[in-house]
Amino acid sequence: MSSVSASRRTVDRRRLRIAIIGSGFGGIGMALQLQEAGFTNFVIFEKAGEVGGVWRDNTYPGAACDVPSQLYSFSFWPNPNWTRSYSPQDEILEYLKMCARQGGLLERIRFHAEVVSLEYSEQRLDWTLTLASGERETFDVVIPALGQLHHPSVPELPGQESFAGQAFHSARWDHSIDWTTKRVGVLGTGASAIQFVPWLARHAGEVTVFQRSAPWVIRKIDREIGPRERRLYDRFPVLQRAQRNLTFWVLDNVMFAHGGSPLRERMIKRMALRNLEKDVPDPVLRGALTPTDTLGCKRILFSSEWYPSLMQPNVHLVAAGVDRLDATGVWSCGAHYEVDVVVYGTGFVTTKFMMPMTVIGAHGVDLQEQWEQGPEAFLGITIPNMPNLFLLYGPNTNLGHNSIIAMLEAQFGYVLEALKTLARIGHGAISVRPEASRAYNEQLQGELAGTVWAAGCDSWYTNDAGRIVNNWSDRVKRYQRLVAHWDIADYDLFGLRSEASVGASVPGTAHVRNQAEA
What is the CATH code of the structural domain delimited by 3-151+351-513? Predict the structure, then answer.
């Protein structure tokens, strides 16, 4: 490429005004990749006062990742300094801060800037963002990177307002409490609860855990990564890459238990039940902790401390849901349990993507109305009637067996290819064709109907209508292959040509329409 054409490409890419919403793994990673590709005219909008997303919000004791550390970081920005094989929350947060700081992103982030609405203009081919402050700005491209686990879900229970003690969701942990003599009621036995309950067992006076259904729990083989090993990773990055690749392969093949392989299912189930039998000798308690849901229907959990913590004399398991609260405690199945503190380990609102933001796309289409039957997107990234809007970690891109970072990185590449096309068009817009999105999602839902997530258990993967809206149906490798190529045939392009040779630089220009003719 000549220096003239290279310069022209740089100018074209800088012309695109890009807004990223959110500064978790999706937002930070996308920004780093935009910079690398020459798309430098972007702003990151963050509603909080620092980066980090879910790892900034969840500071409860024991918070850690249940994906191995070597996979829970960007492949293009490895971290040789993890101190454990499963990273604790504070190290993950520091890693994201380091990426933002060393990547030169901090000056591009607007903190305390919550986006409350997006509105598309068909005349200008751009989006207007409105902030909670009332301020409005326009951008050519919007990339929401909001995640799926950032709106705490607190069940509505009779008598909640009358409870006289302290009550909070685990994602809003109250670090001011002296737990020494506190009687604590924990509602829920999900991924967060199995991390903070062992800590409460060691520090609180008494802990009562209310369990609606017993989770499948596999022993977490967590170990310290010593200074010598960290120095080796730093000096020989190929060693860390090799371990990352091996771990990815094992998780994507051995731990993929959701696609109906009887052999893998039996293996994982045997691991979980042996773990339970070894850690819980009491047959009555073991019976209450024996899962009845189909393996994988709900999230499989990893912990070596969960079962031993429930064996402690100050911890009690109530194998039933909660009926109501009153001033002094919790009612379950006609029995009353006095508690001083209620901790909701009840997960997140996961199936209402883009909430509580109002999004009005082309033709005045309200996104939430379009998603009345459930959120869906083409490849989890683009949405009909929403030109130049690219979701990260969108509908049906969550995993139950591997690292979401691998999914995000695949999406970064797909978005970049789309933006390169936009840069070549000049002033334009691209919108996924409704028929392409419909065909993709019909096939996807057909595949999901054959997975354990369709077994009928109550999980955060499905919406109220029973539609699976969160999870991807297959291995990560297959998703990576699907998004490795941005196919212009799946999209309509609108706009004015900025180059005489658009036809040569953009394949399939039969789909490019002059805005004056549209």
Answer: 3.50.50.60
